[in-house]
Amino acid sequence: MPHDNDPLLDIAKDPVRAQALRQSLERLAGGAGGSALADMASDVLAGRTDLRSAVLSGTYTEALNSRMQQFSSWYQNLSDQEKEEQAERARAHLEQLRQGDQPEPPDPPRRPGPPTDDDSDDEPPATFLRDAW
Fold it and tell me: Cα–Cα distance between 54 and 64 in angstroms, integer?
């Protein structure tokens, strides 16, 4: 569980959300969002920069915009029921974290269609569980 001095608390505002954000960054660092976002997440997790500075620096703007556009398109194509299912998955994950469980971050659902050149994992972009916040 993150501590009060966790730099992610500045953005997440509470320890449980900071832990969920850290898990999302770990997923990105593992390559879920492509190499540029893996570099960004690795730098944040290693303390070489903070998340706000990394996002605002401009260094990762192209990669962030691309992945956010992909996520937006994916999300807009979900039915209302699928959107609610995603929100429930996020709420359940946060509740597990609140209970002190150490669950793995939920696997994102599969995205239909062929993968792009930089997205061979056939998943939607990693999310920060924003609907549950």
Answer: 11
